[in-house]
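Reopening: structure tokens for the manganese (II) ion complex, inputs below.
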Amino acid sequence: MPKTAFKLLLLFSFSSLTFFAVLLLHLKARNVPAAVPSSLVITRNNTSVNILAAAVRPNTTPTPGRPGGALGPCPDGPPNLLGSLYVEFRTNRTLQDVRNLVGPFLQQGGRYRPSSCVARQKVAVIIPFRNRYEHLTHWLHYVHPVLMRQQLDYGVYVINQDGDGAFNRAKLMNIGFVEALIEYDYDCFVFSDVDLVPIDDRNLYRCSDHPRHLSVAVDKFNFILPYATIFGGVSALSKQQFLKVNGFSNTFWGWGGEDDDMSQRISYRRMFISRPDSVTGRYKMIQHERDSHNDPNPRRVQKLTETYFNIIKDGLSTLSYTVREIRKDLLYTLVTVDVQADVDPDVSRSGLKPGSNSYKVSLLSPEEHFQD
Ligand code: UDP
Ligand code: MN
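Re-run output (same inputs, fresh job):
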């Protein structure tokens, strides 16, 4: 009798081992294509565009340099940093105030590059946006000087969701990646909420060997990292890292979940989250109420159990949107986009507009922003 029991136990252990081995192999196989793709086709204005083809990038940016000599690379540690900064949001600032302050150093579209050396990285700063011009003004006032002191070759892209459909922060960031890349050969992408201002300029807006979470100590959370895998707020991924995870998911409508989904994409693609220390990584957040049409997504927790299987089929490779307008302000490039807020059946269809193939590029006058 004990012999039979032993045999049964042996059989049971063997079959469960086999089951788990097969399951592991199966999961691994589903997740294999971790290599960076050499071509990536997205749908922009109902047209397919391979965003990795050099042809999509008109060479409009003058090469840095000064007459009579090539510039050397900028030092790894920017020499003019100040350390901790005083930041407050009580002062009533206008865009024109900020233009007067930092405009003389910028090129149209919120572009900058150091004049004395060649920047180590070309950084696109992407801000997901709708109707937060007051926050944007504070952000531009404080962050432009920081990025200049950090000696970056950078551009600021405000990706403005058109209409009043459900907000989609992650899809706006995917769009920012594509729109910035169409304009210039950026190698690093910093994704930043409009209401987060760093209060230490040693927190470099650059990319590292692994995806980097920059907003580690926010005043709203008493300057403490709320949980170990957090990746929301401000984060930086190199072009290669972003391609490796297929960008963000496009299917998180409303508030929450998309940043944790990205955090999981990163670990499933065998990368880690790198962070500055909790003094360097301090931030102030501008206080605000929850916006309308950005209610917490009731599916956000459930969706996180699906990340593993969705990396390949939901992201940059399935991105589709229409550009309504590209406006060049001195302080930033404003890209207004239709994110097709009707595609998710869970979400109301408000704010929907018919698709269009045409879009405008125009220069922005200071007050136009505040008219809506
Ligand atoms: N956002 C926006 N308009 C909206 C909703 C969100 O511009 O109507 C952008 C903005 O950059 C904001 C970010 O999305 O900082 C994250 O949203 P929110 O600030 O509500 O999230 P929180 O982190 O404060 O919970
Ligand atoms: Mn916020």
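Helices lie at 2-30, 95-102, 133-149, 169-183, 239-244, 258-268, 300-304, 307-310. Residues 193, 195, 285, 288 surround manganese (II) ion (ligand 2) (CB under 6 Å). Marking as resolved unless the reporter disagrees.
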